[in-house]
Amino acid sequence: SQKIEQNSEALNIQEGKTATLTCNYTNYSPAYLQWYRQDPGRGPVFLLLIRENEKEKRKERLKVTFDTTLKQSLFHITASQPADSATYLCALDPNNAGNMLTFGGGTRLMVKP
Amino acid sequence: SAVISQKPSRDICQRGTSLTIQCQVDSQVTMMFWYRQQPGQSLTLIATANQGSEATYESGFVIDKFPISRPNLTFSTLTVSNMSPEDSSIYLCSVVQTNEKLFFGSGTQLSVL
């Protein structure tokens, strides 16, 4: 069966450290993968998209990698801040049609001052 | 980026009643998507709403329970019919714009007593 798996346990880290979140998928062949941030009571907000021919993508303190052999994406936040505390969701387009997305379960990140 | 207004933002409803959620986008979009997020869970796609045609429902969701209207390219409604406590969730509308990114409304927090 098709699955997108993220660590359901909350990730607690100290301010200033690098947070690394993992997204694994099975029985999909996505052309791209996306990461979203969701705060309590809000809809998800798009952060980054990485395509299958890209190994790495960066945006300010965020970095995403995409390994199509391992079927895994890693999401890094460097120099983490308490304001980075949120749930982070990975998502992919199961049909590679450029529209609807299927989401992983999300990982909650808590950055302690 | 699209601006999506969703209302109501929250509601408490009695079992057996129906609630209609509205979603207004500030630009014309071809597809609108309705997602459900049950407590502590990730997002699950309910249906894709296209203007001028019947909505396309995902497995496990049916039109009688979740009727959708899409009268024009900027507006859609989702009705949750004959509600039960199991329908207590956050309901989110979303649209896709350029580069496959999804934009989400802020969601409707529904509690069914």
Q: What Rg of chain A is obtained from the alpha carbons, in whole angstroms?
A: 13 Å
Structural class of chain B: mainly beta
Question: How are helices and strands ordered from N to C of chain B?
Answer: EEEEEEEEEEE
Number of helices, where a helix is a run of at least 4 consecutive DSSP H or I residues of chain A: 0
| Major sheet details of chain B | 7 strands, mixed
Relative helix content of chain B: under 10%
Low-confidence stretches of chain A: none
Characterise the protein shown here:
The complex is a heterodimer of chains A (113) and B (113). Helix content of chain A is 0%, strand content 54%. Chain A is mainly β. The radius of gyration of chain A is 13 Å and the shape is globular. In chain B, 0% of the residues lie in helices and 52% in strands. Chain B has strands at 4-7, 10-13, 19-25, 31-37, 43-50, 56-57, 68-72, 75-80, 89-96, 102-104, 108-112. Chain B is an all-beta fold and 113 residues long. At the A-B interface, strand 4, strand 5 and strand 10 of A face strand 5, strand 9 and strand 10 of B.
What's a quick, concise take on this entry?
The complex is a heterodimer of chains A (113) and B (113). With 113 residues, chain A is mainly beta.
Keywords:
heterodimer; A: 113 residues; mainly beta; five-stranded antiparallel sheet; globular; B: mainly beta; seven-stranded mixed sheet
